Amino acid sequence: MSTRSFNVPANRLWLGLAGLVALPFAELTAFFWVASRIGLPLALIVLVATSFIGLSLLRSQGGAAFSRLARAFNRGEAPDGAARESFMVALGGVLMILPGFVTDAIGFALLLPSLIRQWREGNAMTPASRSKPDRTRAETKVIDLDRNEWKPVDE
Hints:
- The chain is an all-alpha fold.
- The relative contact order is 0.09.
- The radius of gyration is 23 Å and the shape is flat.
- The chain has six helices and no strands.
- It has a domain at about 20-120.
């Protein structure tokens, strides 16, 4: 039985640690910069609003990305692109939920490819499309009946 060792180069370890230490300072700097431009109350409102937007995007984009991942598994394909996109959507959504402008920018950058794909495919969820019932499934069902098993119904 062989065991795998995960040897992380010391440079990457220090880089990750430095990033974790620098992130709070970058967040505070970005917050004070935004607050000086638009005012403290509005900066706080924007900070909370981006968390709710991140949660909403994680719910909508996360479901779509994970369904693409499941479809790739069902077709028996290697889920390379779907797995990467699912990970990016999950990480981007979590980063947008965390309070802070720097994490919001990074999270939105990670969510952007998935958003662009859905807009190109015409699957973007807009408020108007949410209110309409999804009839595509019902329209694709075909029931084959004999002539004496059905009668026309006036609408």
